[in-house]
Every structure is written in C-alpha cells, then in structure tokens.
From TrEMBL:
<dbReference type="Pfam" id="PF02482">
    <property type="entry name" value="Ribosomal_S30AE"/>
</dbReference>
<comment type="subunit">
    <text>Associates exclusively with 100S ribosomes, which are dimers of 70S ribosomes.</text>
</comment>
<comment type="similarity">
    <text>Belongs to the HPF/YfiA ribosome-associated protein family. Long HPF subfamily.</text>
</comment>
<dbReference type="InterPro" id="IPR032528">
    <property type="entry name" value="Ribosom_S30AE_C"/>
</dbReference>
<keyword id="KW-0810">Translation regulation</keyword>
<protein>
    <recommendedName>
        <fullName>Ribosome hibernation promoting factor</fullName>
    </recommendedName>
</protein>
<comment type="subunit">
    <text>Interacts with 100S ribosomes.</text>
</comment>
<dbReference type="GO" id="GO:0022627">
    <property type="term" value="C:cytosolic small ribosomal subunit"/>
</dbReference>
<dbReference type="InterPro" id="IPR038416">
    <property type="entry name" value="Ribosom_S30AE_C_sf"/>
</dbReference>
<comment type="function">
    <text>Required for dimerization of active 70S ribosomes into 100S ribosomes in stationary phase; 100S ribosomes are translationally inactive and sometimes present during exponential growth.</text>
</comment>
<keyword id="KW-0963">Cytoplasm</keyword>
<dbReference type="InterPro" id="IPR003489">
    <property type="entry name" value="RHF/RaiA"/>
</dbReference>
<dbReference type="Pfam" id="PF16321">
    <property type="entry name" value="Ribosom_S30AE_C"/>
</dbReference>
<dbReference type="InterPro" id="IPR036567">
    <property type="entry name" value="RHF-like"/>
</dbReference>
<dbReference type="GO" id="GO:0043024">
    <property type="term" value="F:ribosomal small subunit binding"/>
</dbReference>
<feature type="domain" description="Sigma 54 modulation/S30EA ribosomal protein C-terminal">
    <location>
        <begin position="130"/>
        <end position="183"/>
    </location>
</feature>
<dbReference type="InterPro" id="IPR050574">
    <property type="entry name" value="HPF/YfiA_ribosome-assoc"/>
</dbReference>
Length: 187
C-alpha cells in the first residue's frame, strides 16, 4: 500500500507520518482488505488544522473523510474516526461487491468544466448567453452497478455521482434528494 502524507504550507514531521501510516493501516486492514493507496493532506484554516484523507480501494471505490481540530494529531484522529465509521458501516456491502467483482472498476475518460457564476445586474445585459468556462479538466466516469454507485457516493460524501451502468452503456446519475432518499436517473 502506498501512503502519501503531505501538508499545504505546513511541515509534516516523521513522527506524524509514522502515526498516520500505522493508524490508517490498522483501520484499513480491519475493514477494507486490499486498499491500493491513501492520500492524507494536512492544512491550516485560521486557528484549526484540517486533515483530508482519500483512500482508493482495490475494487475501484474511493473513501473520503475530513476533520478539523486545534491540534494536528487531533485533526487526523477525527478524520480516522470518520473513515472508520464509514468503512464499518459499509463493510458487508464492500465484501459482497468484492466477491461479485473479480476485476477492478473500469473507468472512462470525460471532460469536466467549471462555469463562472453569473453576476445578476438588472441594468446591464450580458454580451452573450454562453457561460464563461473558468476551468477544464479530465475526470473519470466509473462503470458500476447501481448499488455500488450509491455506496461510492456515500463513501465519498458527495451529493451526486455520474456513472456508467454495468448492464447498459448509457450514463446514469444517483443523487441525494432533499427528503434524504436516493434518486436514480437512468436514460
């Protein structure tokens, strides 16, 4: 397993790196079986330290957690607790999907754009109705079953996930509805 422990404008010492690797590997061995790599990024926001952890599992799923605390070790411990809770919660589903899936998740390339928000000014008419593209980047669209897509969306903590269905070639979307349920859009 590969670990990447880094800091944004913070020096990360050997002691913290060792602590992160031993504690994270203990949690991952208990629940996830075969993780491939983990990224842990520490940063500072005002008076608090922020720890963001992203773990890529061998099944192609990604687990994310983020925590804030006034001390750097406490921020990691909070982040580790969140990841432990997520993995414990989805352990049965992870094992079931691991048995069914003999190969890692297939990924398809796609373009991702960030559009500028419109400044609403009642006196000035816009020159054109085309949105301004702020950033363009490459992203990957996984090929998953609906159950795996819902699990991936919840593990990543995102409100929506676009995926390609295992059974059909079209793109599908799962999203969290305002009432707390999960919505699924199938073309």
């Amino acid at each position: 397993m590969r670990y990447k422990v880094s800091g944004k404008q913070i020096d990360i010492g050997e002691s913290l790196q060792t602590h992160v690797e031993t504690e994270l590997s203990a949690v991952l061995e208990k629940y996830a079986g075969r993780p491939t790599d983990a990224q842990v990024v520490f940063s500072r926001h005002a008076h608090e330290y922020v720890c963001e952890t992203i773990v890529h599992l061998s099944t192609g799923l990604t687990c994310q957690a983020k925590a804030h605390a006034t001390e750097i070790y406490m921020s990691f411990d909070g982040c580790l607790e969140k990841m432990d809770k997520q993995l414990r919660r989805y352990k049965r589903r992870l094992k079931d999907h691991h048995r069914d899936r003999s190969e890692p998740v297939e990924l398809m390339g796609a373009s991702s754009y960030i559009l500028a928000s419109e400044q609403v000014d009642s006196e000035v008419e816009p020159d054109s109705l085309q949105p301004i593209i702020v950033a363009e980047m490459e992203t990957k669209i996984p090929s998953l079953s609906v159950g795996e897509a819902v699990m991936q969306m919840e593990l990543a903590g995102s409100p929506v996930l676009v995926f390609r269905s295992d059974t059909k070639d079209g793109l599908n979307v799962v999203y969290r509805r305002d009432d707390g349920n999960i919505g699924w859009i199938e073309p």
